[in-house]
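In the design runs reported in the main text, the only information available to the sequence generator was the tokenized backbone. The following block is the verbatim input for one such run; it is reproduced so that readers can re-run the procedure and compare outputs position by position.
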């Protein structure tokens, strides 16, 4: 049996979650509160608490601070943060404070139940909506991260300027005018770029620059 305490500053939210969980044979809501002191009293009395489902917004304190406080004294208690706040910084703060899971309040009943059972076993979980967003961001960053070949090129500032202007479609003469130098000098920089990147023409140079994070 998984014993749960609900902590939220809205009674209607606690009641809604309780209603969802009451029909589960392996889950029991043994208490609910919106007060830090009452929650600590529950724990100190030796109540057999397995999982606390807690909001971030609370009177007198916040769920992240309270999570850290509980985990420092009662590390065996698993904590699920259930919040309307879906920004990644809150997820990071909650997990750093010791939370076992982070869910936003529009999760499905099935996902909530999965998270409860998962964290009751000491595992960690972040709801699918946030997980997918973090994954997309990671993929985006990885595409922009220069690979070892690109970082070893050692392009100087002038070469980077020529590369950027070339990617914008400027001719050698136009680049020379913008950089207050000669067309021949620009041609020299462009030839150096081709040699350093080991490509044969301007189109391949620009493609290499974007693929390897030299340009974004």
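Verbatim output:
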């Amino acid at each position: 049996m998984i014993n749960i305490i609900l902590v939220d500053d809205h009674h209607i939210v606690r009641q809604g979650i309780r209603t969802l969980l009451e029909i589960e044979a392996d889950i029991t809501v043994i208490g609910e509160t919106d007060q830090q002191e009452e929650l600590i009293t529950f724990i100190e009395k030796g109540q057999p608490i397995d999982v606390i489902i807690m909001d971030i917004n609370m009177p007198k304190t916040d769920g992240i601070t309270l999570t850290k406080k509980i985990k420092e004294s009662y590390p065996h208690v698993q904590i699920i943060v259930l919040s309307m706040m879906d920004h990644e910084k809150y997820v990071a703060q909650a997990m750093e404070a010791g939370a076992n899971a982070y869910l936003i309040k529009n999760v499905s009943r099935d996902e909530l139940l999965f998270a409860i059972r998962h964290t009751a076993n000491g595992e960690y979980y972040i709801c699918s909506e946030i997980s997918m967003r973090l994954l997309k961001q990671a993929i985006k960053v990885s595409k922009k991260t220069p690979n070892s070949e690109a970082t070893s090129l050692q392009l100087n500032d002038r070469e980077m300027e020529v590369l950027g202007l070339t990617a914008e479609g400027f001719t050698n003469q136009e680049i020379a005018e913008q950089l207050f130098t000669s067309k021949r000098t620009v041609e020299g920089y462009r030839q150096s770029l081709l040699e350093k990147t080991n490509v044969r023409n301007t189109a391949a140079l620009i493609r290499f620059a974007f693929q390897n994070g030299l340009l974004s």
